[in-house]
Amino acid sequence: MSTGKTAPSVISVVGSSGVGKTTLIEKLIPELTRRGVRVGTIKHHMHEFEMDRPGKDSWRHRRAGARVSVISSPAQVGITMDVDHDHSPGELLPFFTGVDLVLAEGYKRGDTPKIEVFRPDVHKEPLCKNDARLVALVCDVDVSAGVPRFSPEDIRGLADFLVSRFNLIKSVPDKTRKAAV
């Protein structure tokens, strides 16, 4: 699928810890993929993490001092590298060749458009309620944030919104919908 863009669109899925951001992304990816949208993801983490397992060759390369380590097979490529700052989604886009839309989990203070997952039992009000980059709210309660609101179960509606918002052309027909008569 080609949208004529050189870089994919990015939307950040934000919200307090434990509100269901990862669950929403897990449900949204197959819905978008079924429509022909090629999806990539970024998980923003504020602390160091270990992606490679201790003892494996690539882990040993990194421990020996390699700044970049690439694991390559016929089916996958994995890369770990030292960095000097917390990268924004825009800085990571060169890694997303062949992707139409990047769903970034986190970056609530970033400058990308945002979907906030909100649960009033976790936080009193939406974190991004007054953020001009907030484009949609996902919650089960009637909260006004001046943007479209979707139930956490309305994955199709949210996918429709994203396809329209980012002008993602459907290359795979939606066989679950009946044609208008």
Short précis:
It contains 4 helices and 8 strands.
What does this structure look like?
The chain is of the alpha/beta class. The protein has 2 domains: 1-46 and 86-181, Rossmann fold; 50-85, no CATH class. The chain contains 4 helices and 8 strands, in the order E-H-E-H-E-E-H-E-E-E-E-H. The chain has helices at residues 21-34, 57-63, 89-92, 155-165; strands at residues 9-14, 39-43, 68-72, 77-81, 101-105, 114-117, 134-138, 149-150. A hairpin with a 4-residue loop joins strand 3 and strand 4. Helix 1 (21-34) packs across helix 4.
The number of helical segments is 4
Termini separation comes to 28 Å
Q: Structural class per helix/strand content?
A: alpha/beta
The low-pLDDT segments are 172-181
Listing every helix as H and every strand as E from the N terminus to the C terminus, the arrangement reads EHEHEEHEEEEH
**Spatial order of the strands forming the largest sheet:** 2-5-1-6-7-8
CATH topology of the largest domain: Rossmann fold
Radius of gyration in whole Å, from Cα? 18 Å
CATH architecture of the largest domain: 3-Layer(aba) Sandwich
Mean pLDDT: 85
- In the CATH scheme, the class of the largest domain would be Alpha Beta
- The CATH H-level homologous superfamily of the largest domain: P-loop containing nucleotide triphosphate hydrolases
* Strand percentage: 15-25%
Number of domains: 2
What's the overall geometry?
A: globular
Indicate the percent of residues in helices.
10-25%
Number of strands: 8
Largest beta sheet, briefly?
Answer: 6 strands, parallel
